[in-house]
């Protein structure tokens, strides 16, 4: 666990606001009501925001991670709901949800997405478990932000595309019904070496589902590793993009190695941001640290967040795109 230095004056909370926030938290804890604190959570809708995924901060308590990212300068955060992480919804009691909401409000952080890992399978029991996980995630989304619940982001898994695509499409249609009922959005992420790995396959799926509740999480690193043109991939997928991850990638022989965004110089992020904006995307751009990195001995999540912020904040500046806050 990293011990954080005190917040510097530029990020210190106004005393009056802090007292109001503390009072609201106390009142909510006493009453069990969620409304008063939920209303104060930052809302980034209609704006670009720069976020960091807590997939890369597994060893930090989420409240500590939120404080740290706010101090660095991030606008938003992607929570990680995977089993073994601090915000697994199956393990979060009501009081802890209020504490998380309070931390988001106190540090003026948006929560725009929540990462899950829900690969599809022919095993009906496992698919039922997936449906239950989606319901749990939807409940947490509304507990954290009543007015702007974060979307749920997931990959779909491996297998042969032609064998799997009809089942993928049918499952996503079922998910769209659940998303309507639970009032959430779900973004599925094409992933190199998975069944859904190209813009063409992703577009086919979106056409089959044909429901705005189901969209795409766009991560160019998975296309760059296959030498797919950036500009064309954005144009092809623009109408379906609900969320954006950023990280670098290097292909070494038959192996794909991911890296922190901007660290290899392989991806032109100002150009990517401009392409997204010009093609109608306005939303979160979230730095993701691959497990290839955070599982390495000596990995420092705070250093990774600082390095990613420096490069991506500069990309926004060069692109001339204004961020939330």
UniProtKB/TrEMBL annotation:
Residues 67-312 form the Xylose isomerase-like TIM barrel domain. SUPFAM superfamilies: Xylose isomerase-like. PROSITE patterns: TAT (PS51318). One of its GO terms (molecular function) is L-ribulose-5-phosphate 3-epimerase activity. InterPro entries: IolE/XylAMocC-like, TAT_signal, Xyl_isomerase-like_sf, Xyl_isomerase-like_TIM-brl. Keywords: Isomerase. Its EC number is 5.1.3.22. This is L-ribulose-5-phosphate 3-epimerase UlaE.
